[in-house]
Amino acid sequence: MRVAIITVSDRCSEGTAIDKSGPKLVELINASEKVKHATVTGTTVIPDEREKISHAIRELCGSNASDVVITTGGTGWAVRDVTPEATNDVIERRCGGLETALHLRSLQATPFAALSRLTAGIRGQTLIVNFPGSTKAVQECWEVLEPLLNHGIGLLCGADQTTVHEKIQGQ
């Protein structure tokens, strides 16, 4: 499974702050025992600019470059937080259940999670998921996404999932 990470931050892209959430995601993916054969294919840091974000996501989805694109940052209420809008410009299908699960997990940790506008969706055979920008929120959101990835990406790629569905349903 090929995973690309985009950190969205004006300050980190300018070099006035250090990206901590992108490296945290790399650490979590590399340490995962649940995601089969996960490889981080690239990380990038870009400013909070809608066109640059959507362009970066499109590039990572093109030619089956990535199975999963995770963004971190730019999901709040600040004027420059436009990651959800940029993601919605790119996705073809929303993943509302995943969005709800991510929000619910974060709300268990802090009421401030209600201020997150993260989104998730599919473009072609690529899953795109927005995470908030803090390392704590990245950890919490990864706990939700990690156990879903093998099955979800299998479905996107058209793999035969009959036995997985039977196991889930207790058959």
Automatic annotation (TrEMBL):
Residues 4-152 form the MoaB/Mog domain. PROSITE patterns: MOCF_BIOSYNTHESIS_1. The keyword Transmembrane does not apply. Keywords: Molybdenum cofactor biosynthesis. One of its GO terms (biological process) is Mo-molybdopterin cofactor biosynthetic process. It is an enzyme of class 2 (transferase). Gene3D superfamilies: MoaB/Mog-like domain (3.40.980.10). Pathway: Cofactor biosynthesis; molybdopterin biosynthesis. One of its GO terms (molecular function) is molybdopterin molybdotransferase activity. Its EC number is 2.10.1.1. In the N-terminal section; belongs to the MoaB/Mog family. This is molybdopterin molybdotransferase. It comes from Mesorhabditis spiculigera.
